[in-house]
Design goal:
The chain is of the alpha/beta class. It has helices spanning 18-28, 46-58, 76-84; strands at 37-42, 63-68, 93-97.
Length: 110
């Protein structure tokens, strides 16, 4: 293929990787309208971790809301904490719940 190991990054399915966290964090700096909350669906917790890092870096007064795609998905906050280490800031979380998971990932409750 002609590519060396230094020419590409492997990011696991779902994006659960520190490089993905960095990429999402940069997105926060690209929002140029006033806002008070950032909300996201959560499958692996990586997007939520990236938003938390970005808010810490660029928008200190913003609160985060996470809606898990998994039944009983509150455990994802543990994964977020692992991804961020000492950067993890529980005070930024306004709401985090699996209340609206609708039966679990890729399912409905109908």
């Amino acid at each position: 293929s002609g590519l060396s190991k230094n020419d590409w990054y492997y990011i696991p399915e779902g994006g659960h990787h520190p490089l993905a966290v960095n990429g999402v964090a940069e997105l926060v700096s690209e929002i140029h309208i006033p806002y008070h909350y950032l909300a996201t669906a959560c499958g692996t917790g990586t997007t939520f971790a990236g938003l938390m890092r970005g808010v810490e870096q660029y928008q200190h007064s913003v609160k985060l809301m996470g809606f898990t795609a998994l039944k009983k998905g509150e455990f994802l906050l543990d994964d977020v904490q692992v991804l961020l280490g000492e950067e993890y800031n529980n005070e930024l979380i306004h709401y985090f719940s699996s209340e609206f998971a609708l039966g679990g990932y890729a399912k409905t409750n109908t």
